[in-house]
Amino acid sequence: MKNIAIVIGTRPELIKMAPVMHELMKRKIPFSFIHSNQHYSKELDGNIIRNLDLPSIDEHLDVGSGLHGAQTGKIMESIERLWTKHTPHIAIVHGDTNTTLGAALAAAKMHIPVCHVEAGLRSFDNAMPEEINRILTDRISDVLFTPTETSKEYLLKEGVDPEKIVVTGNTVVDALLQHIEIARKKSAVLRTYTLEKNHYACVTMHRPENVDSKKQLEKGIELLVVLSKELGYRLVFPIHPRTQQALEKWQIHVPAQYITVIPPVDYLDTLILLENAVLVITDSGGIQEEAYMLKRPLITIRTSTERPETLSANVIVGLDKKKAIAAWRAYKKGWGKWGNELGDGHAAEKIVDVLERMVKKGKR
What we know:
By secondary structure, the protein is an alpha/beta fold. Helix content is 48%, strand content 14%.
């Protein structure tokens, strides 16, 4: 029986947990790899697994999309059924998705120790479902791997036992450092879309508050057009399925002379698009981190961020056109400082050090 179970449900989790899986394999520590299929594309996820040299998925839960409560409930039910037959000694979850909360709740109710990677992040915006997921998962976790001292301080202020907290750095740093050279050699995305370094901006937009309302989505597209005109460059927009469906549903026109919509791209192509963009515009938490590490000017089209470490070179503008233009002009004048607050690339080693001790203790 495998002592460790890793549960993920989305591509960002897959990418950020890859360094942990690599380190477990390096030390020959067996683990089971469970995908809830909360978000799943056989092609995209398969590409990530191949490109990141990950093992095959052991269990697909086939949960699919749905309302938050229903999705979380299905994940709990599926995990409980699976672990009743094969109970791991440790359950590892990552981040803030419904999969994270559902798997953590199932494990806690079955008295399986929960280890939460990327614990302690806070946007202080309870309107975000992810914020609720983070808080609840942190409350029931036995070990909380925080990416920064800031996230540790948040947990301490909430009354979390300091003995449960381990500051590791962010595994997204590990992933980027391990794969950026591979991306530079393998990715053909710039040639495919005739892109020249620093002559385009990269956009991602998929969050419910931006795309689940016709008014907000139209406002978002207007913002992108205004920014394209201000920059004098086109915006390259790898489209998220959720955003694509919303554009089609409301028949919202995306002006091709300003915005080039392309299909979703894999992790290696994403890194290259970010690294070579003159500006990154996003509502994604992970993209904020990656753009910051790649030292790219960054505008976040949200009203808050759970990544305060990026704010020395990340401007939060919501969908406010004037703020977005002001941010770009500030960058042109030299504003923005990039540091290494997110970690040193050894987060996975620190995480697996703890897991290894837990496994050995459980065998006594």
